[in-house]
Amino acid sequence: MTPDTGPDLGQRAQAEIAARVAAIDTAALAASLDAGGYAVVPALLTREDCASLAAQYEEAARFRSRVVMARHGYGQGEYQYFAYPLPPLIAALRGHLYPLLAPIANRWNEAMNIDVRFPRDHATFIARCHRAGQLRPTPLLLHYRAGDYNRLHQDLYGEHVFPLQATVLLSRPETDFTGGEFVLVEQRARMQSRAEVVPLAQGDAVIFAVNQRPVTSARGFTRVTLRHGVSTLRSGARMTLGIIFHDAT
Description:
Elements: H1 7-22, H2 26-36, E1 38-41, H3 47-55, E2 63-68, E3 75-76, E4 78-82, H4 88-111, H5 122-131, E5 140-145, E6 149-153, E7 164-169, E8 177-179, E9 182-187, E10 194-198, E11 205-209, E12 212-217, E13 220-230, E14 233-244
Antiparallel strand pairs: 1-11, 2-4, 3-6, 4-5, 5-14, 6-13, 7-11, 7-14, 8-14, 9-10, 9-13, 12-13
Helix pairs in contact: 1-4
């Protein structure tokens, strides 16, 4: 067993991430998600966490697949999906963020008249995914260089979709790279699209809607659609961690 997947490091990662997630202001998080479809969690990962995760990109055995975006029309750059078992830090993030977000996801689905409800713990939800044939893990590392970008998209992957996901910036803006802003675009019925650029520092996470979110309307709530992407890098290299809570077919 390699040192970074051993039980001691796994327990330490669980404890550290649990403490950081417990410190999140849940009321402020929910209010931001309700207002704009996203919320920033400052310093969710330390500088050391970010460096450790970024270094794993070159360890091919950790990943189940590698995607070169230009080959599929997704943009420019590349990303790799982790294989199971996930690195302890990523498993901890997935496991501890999910219970924080599940009540918001359930409230959103109720407002949008969607019958699906989500269990309290992530393991139970993943078991639901696996019973439906969604067996492939979806956390990923994304790597961009100067000139790279990510077109607007949604990370759906199958029948069972958890409606919130997270991205953590592993690189230092204005030091490791310039440009490469995280972008959200919202589309409401009979309105032009609205773009939002979300500034992030190294270690910050942005939590955002995967597909749709409820917005108050004259008749109660209406569904609005969000897509996300990354603007063109002007210089340097940018790495991010994506935490998606459902698995893929």
